[in-house]
Each structure stands twice: as structure tokens, then as C-alpha cells.
Amino acid sequence: MKEQEIGRKVVIDLGKANVFAIVIMVVSAVVLLVPFFLIWHGRKDIVELFGGPTEWFIVLPVIVVGIVVHELIHGLTWACYAKRGWKSISFGVMWKMLTPYCHCDEPLSIPGYMMGAMMPCIVLGIIPSIVALFIGSLPLLVWGIFFISAAAGDIWMTWLLTKEDPKNMVLDHPTEAGFYIIEEEEALAGQH
Prior knowledge:
Order of helices and strands: HEHHHEEEHHHEEH
Strand order of the largest sheet: 1-6-5-4
Structural class: alpha+beta
Number of helices: 8
Radius of gyration: 19 Å
Distance between the termini: 17 Å
Shape: elongated
Number of strands: 6
């Protein structure tokens, strides 16, 4: 299928996405670390607050596993919105950028696509960060901040989709960080 037959192409520049990830990391670190230290400073001694070497030894390798889980979460969520389910999902690596990816090869509703795009940020970033604030675990908070910033491209694409008509469909781009917008009329014509 030719590109003009698919819909309007929207892609993000991976270099700019990496800069955006640094901005997201700095902002989330400030937003989360300030309350963390305000809440827990004085309630735990400094060694307990920062965590021991065992906690940090566990966090670092688990981050590598978390990167794979990040892509699996995309796939599981998108499969819930795809007519063909798991059969529409594939995984790979963009070797030039050493970036793993998940791809859905059928059009999804914009809300469904956005849910799949944001779910890893929520599950691996936001929820662990909130838990870390409640239990006073700096290693867990670092984990959460890392995975919030790891979702920078997803956040950016979701933000771009907020500008689109929710009646349209979105098709994940197979080789670039982006998607195609399929106008409502095109989507209806494709069903007949």
C-alpha cells in the first residue's frame, strides 16, 4: 500500500525526542525528588533513605528487563484494541538508535492508540514513583523517573494525537517513530 493511500504521515525526530527525554527526566526529577526529600528527610536516616548497595544492584539490571517490559506493555494494550488482537503486534529493534520498538500493523482508534502509547509510562513510571513517595524508596523513585523519561517519545506522540479528530483512526508507522492518520471518511471507505 502506498503512503498516500494509507493517510497523513506524522513522525517525530528521534534526536529531538532524545532531547525531550532529557527535559522530561529533569522536570520529573524535580517534581518528584523535592517532595520525596521533604517527606522523608528526618523520618529515615540517610543510609536507609538512599537505599543500600543491594537495592541499587537490583534496580540497575532490572531496568534492562523493564525496557523489554515497556514494549510488551505497548503490545498487550494495543492488542486489546486491535480487531486481530495479538496477531497484529510485532517487536523489533531500531539498531541505528539501539531502540527497541513495538508495532501494531492495523489501524486503531485514536483513544486506543493513545492508551497503548501511555500505558508503559503509567505502569513503569508513574505508579512506581507514587509508591516510592509513600514508602520512602529512592531506588524505586529513580526507577520511576527513568521510565517516565523513557516514555518521552510516547508522550510526544500522544500529545500530537490530542490535536487530531478522535473519530479518525491511527496506524502505527512500521519503520519510523510515528503514525499515519486515517481520516474518518478513508476509514469508512476501507471497511466497504
